[in-house]
Design brief:
369 residues; mainly alpha; 2 domains
Length: 369
Amino acid sequence: IYVENPAWPLRDKQECLLFRSFIKHIAPIFDLCDHERHFTRIVPQRAVTCPPLLNAMLAAAAKYLNKFGDVDVPVGDEYLQKCLAVLIPALSCATAVVDENLLAAIVLLRFIEEIDVPFSSNGSQSHLIGTRVFLAAQKEVCEFTGLRLAAFWSALRQEIFTAVVHFKPVQLTELLTKITPFILPEDCNCSYANRTIIHCAACVQLCFGHSTVSQEQWDKLMDCLDQWWNARPWQFRPMTPADGERGSSSFPDEFYLNDAVVTGIQHYYLARLILLAHKPTLPSLGLARKKALDNVDDSIRDIVRHVCGIAEVNPMLRRIASLSIALAADRFIVREEQEALYEILKMANRKSPWTTQTIQEDVAELWNW
């Protein structure tokens, strides 16, 4: 797992390209809600003495660059296989669950799978080995600091996304309560964003779990979201003068202070969308049913518009917008809005590492294009 002498300098120009690409393009995705930027600052330094972490880094960068035609596919697969050859045997050891470098490597491998697997509920879920490691590591969360904790926050965001795509509950349930004490002081944007990410995970857990959603549970989570939204500091409000004002786009102009703020806002909207879609008080019959459904649909459409407005100006954060479109596309019946949503999917496919081609095909069929 470790070598005594750092693998420095790197072997060749290709590895240098991948190493730099990781720092520039990949690490910021994991540091969205980490003001200490562990994946940008710490992971590259640790990787030169931890071969599985280094190979996970290089594989992730190669997969990213391959999406844009800058690196051949076999390059990423080569580094991936080198990583797995060491990592899989290591996972049988109990100490693996407390090795923060291996946890970081697992998070990177899950990122690679997210790039490789089509964005669809029918896609593969081959990250289960990594999930088991994090499930075991939850028992040691009281000792988590630094990179280990940063890896957990990244894993939680990954788990939320995967759970929603597959309409399944979040597996890292114990983490939702244990990780709360590790949220940073309230004056940190990352802290406030992470609070709503926990709320989002709880909403996914409730709505996609195996039990019926009760009114009491639903009200409690909606109250948490409302409290978070109403108490949000000024940094979590749009910098544009009028909230929701539209410019030349089909969506509201939503410019925010930084990536942590945007990540928090998007998870708030995602959580609210999921809760509204599972509102337990919707009438089953009668004249009030259509009105109630129309009100919910109006609210969900408004959420999607806001998320897409955010995505237009935040290239790294278009995945939640794509997910929101996939969840609520059936609620958009006006051709003009459908075309605007489709453009968001196309833009996400062109400019982000995650492919949305499957969603594009699904919504086009749904809309009878």
